[in-house]
Design a protein that fits this description.
The chain has one domain (20-115). The chain is an alpha+beta fold. The longest helix has 19 residues, at 97-115. The chain has a two-stranded antiparallel sheet with strand order 1-2. The protein is 36% helix and 10% strand. The chain is built from 4 helices and 2 strands; from the N terminus they run ααββαα. The structure holds zinc ion.
Length: 116
């Protein structure tokens, strides 16, 4: 007796949600947009990086997993870094409650402006 090749059906429910990593990805045009908005200065303290580190980083204003679609220019800000160094704005928004609150508020402002 012959049996046809009968592979197990492939699962049809493909993941259609973006992974946290995909959502958190900062596309070149997003980075460019944030850079133009900031004018090359830290969007919080207005310096080009901190005096010691001279680094400007594209920082997420919101936890990556909270982003619904992809990261847009309104989800990020150019901040002085590096984020691992205390005293920089990037470190401040990533590791302090005060900084996180500022970041969320700043993000709201950016979205408000984008609506106009
Ligand atoms: Zn700064």
């Amino acid at each position: 007796m012959m049996f046809g090749f009968n592979p197990a059906p492939k699962p049809t429910s493909r993941r259609n949600k973006l992974t946290t990593k995909m959502r958190g990805r900062i596309k070149p045009e997003v980075y460019q947009g944030a850079m133009e908005r900031s004018g090359g200065l830290c969007e919080r303290c207005g310096k080009y990086g901190s005096h010691e580190y001279q680094t400007l980083q594209c920082a997420h204003l919101i936890r990556r997993w909270k982003i619904e679609g992809e990261t847009t220019v309104n989800d990020v800000a150019m901040l002085c870094g590096p984020s691992v160094n205390t005293g920089t704005c990037h470190n401040w928004i990533d590791y302090t409650a005060e900084g996180k609150a500022w970041a969320e508020e700043y993000r709201q402002q950016l979205y408000e402006k984008a609506k106009e």
